[in-house]
Amino acid sequence: MSELFGPLLDAYDERRRAELVAAYMAVEHAAAPVPEVRFPALREPALRRTVAAMLALSGRTLIRYGREWTSGYHDDVAAELAADPACAPPPQDRAVLTLVLVHAVAIPRAAGLLDEDTWLSPYPAAADELRRRSQLPVGELEAALRRLRTAGLVTQVKAGADDAGGYVPGPQFHRLTPGARRRLQEELILAAGPDSPLAAAIRARRRAARTASDEGEQA
Amino acid sequence: MSWSPQILARARARVLGADGTGAADPAPPGLAAVADGPRAWLLPSWPDGATPALLEQYEVAPMPLDRAGQARRVLAAALRCCWTALDDAPWPGEPAPVAAVLAVYAGMTRGDAALAGRWATGELRRLADTGWLLLDEAAGTVRPGPRTALWREESLGPLRDLLRRMPGPGAAAP
């Protein structure tokens, strides 16, 4: 709506303005990060700062993958939204998504098949595995998977010649900030190996961070 | 960095897609409020009237949709039943029985009618999850969703022509 974006856009001529709007819509709505070569407003740092300011009006931020860009929630805004019960997905959706992440990402990563910093995976979590492990009635599991697919949080992989198909993390996983990717990795370690030395180190670091921020508030 | 309540309200609206509120509550700037009797739906709105259709011009793939063709046909079947006064806007439209929508959809497809009905029911739920339709499963009715209120008048012509050509629920009986 122009009343919202006007103060940021009114200074630009028509062509620049259209480039800014195109870049904004592309990072907000494309399935994957978009190449800066196709969007002048992502390529030029001054214009890119304006795109970032447009995103910040809704608590969003630019996320960079080399020369490609997408958008996601700023870490503080994501924390606020997660604390709002209306915004958090229901527990069964979160449980099913966690199972998909364990099977499609954590296990292949532990086997050295996936990079440290990626949440996209070519190794689907098998549908029967989800049925067996989720402890959900099949109707609820199907409903959770439908909502997760619609939200772009999981993608269904059709059965091929060599595999039975299943689910991998969806395109929304492009939209995690570096901080969110790190926290998700830590959460997965805490869930999969709560007694491991790595989990103990994560808990210790979080305790230290909390203490430091409490002291900061008191000072 | 601090985040104003208005920024958080816009962030929340983006998460929720179509968020219900009281009709009397003012909409935060940057959100479109779609009035619906005693309540209103808050929808994110975009700069300079752009829509995600702009991605096509740049040959960038939008968020994938499972069975997009089927979703479009089910939405068309629902609009055929709920948007009966075609000279008016599609919103708010009229509630129609889900059974009538399924009958229209069955008339558009070949093959197993029971299977088509099950697919279409799932599709109605997905369209309701995303604000394109409002589905009342207990009452067995469906009506247009608040997103249809944001369709611009100049974009409605082809849709009206399509709906005029589609057989209605009465015509679809075998």
Quick take:
Chain A has 219 residues and is mostly helical.
In quaternary terms, these chains amount to: heterodimer
Overall form of chain A: globular
Tell me the β content of chain B: 5-15%
The average pLDDT score of chain B comes to 88
Name the poorly predicted regions of chain A: none
Q: Tell me the series of helices and strands of chain A, N- to C-terminal.
A: HHEHHEEHHEHHEEHH
Q: Give the strand order of the largest sheet of chain A, numbering strands 1, 2, ... along the chain.
A: 1-3-2
Instruction: Give the name of the CATH architecture of the largest domain in chain A.
Output: Orthogonal Bundle
List the keywords:
heterodimer; A: 219 residues; mainly alpha; Arc Repressor Mutant, subunit A; 3 domains; three-stranded antiparallel sheet; 6 strands; 57% helix; B: alpha+beta
Description of the molecule:
The complex is a heterodimer of chains A (about 220) and B (about 170). Chain A is mainly α. Chain A has three domains: about 1-80, Arc Repressor Mutant, subunit A, CATH 1.10.10; about 90-175, Arc Repressor Mutant, subunit A (Orthogonal Bundle), CATH 1.10.10; about 180-219. In chain A, about 55% of the residues lie in helices and about 10% in strands. Chain A has ten helices and six strands; from the N terminus they run H-H-E-H-H-E-E-H-H-E-H-H-E-E-H-H. Chain A has helices at about 1-10, 15-30, 40-45, 45-55, 75-80, 90-110, 125-135, 140-150, 180-190, 195-219, and strands spanning about 35, 60-65, 70-75, 125, 155, 165-170. In chain A, the strands form two sheets. Chain A has a three-stranded antiparallel β-sheet. The termini of chain A are far apart. Chain B has about 170 residues and is an alpha+beta fold. Chain B has two domains: about 5-55, no CATH class; about 70-170, Arc Repressor Mutant, subunit A, CATH 1.10.10. Chain B is about 40% helix and about 15% strand. Chain B has helices spanning about 5-15, 55, 70-80, 100-110, 115-130, 155-165, and strands at about 20, 30-35, 40-45, 95, 135, 140-145. The longest helix of chain B is centred in the last third of the chain and has 17 residues, at about 115-130. The mean pLDDT of chain B is about 90. The chains are: A mainly alpha (about 220), B alpha+beta (about 170). The interface of A and B includes residues 24 and 30 of A.
